Amino acid sequence: MTDTLISAALLADRYGRGDHMDGDWWWMALAMAVFWAAIIVLVVWVFRSGGGVSVHRRESADEILRRRLAEGEISVEEFETRRKAMREGGGGET
Predict the structure, then answer these.
(1) Does residue 94 surpass a pLDDT of 50?
(2) Do 69 and 79 contact (CB within 8 A), yes or no?
């Protein structure tokens, strides 16, 4: 019984001093840092890439007309004519 008590006391003393990891704590800290860095990089990448979801919405006729005017594809006169036609319910090209 004395041997068991001595063994228990030595074991408790070893764990009580904090040297139960024998100095191998650094690789676990490094692994944890690498793990969290990888998670953060993954989250940033997903958000910047749009999450893999295509979020293209269709342009309205007025937006298309404004874009074409801004890009110089149509003149101001043609823009006004087409815009007037859309508002009157024609909706088509003149």
Answers:
(1) no
(2) yes
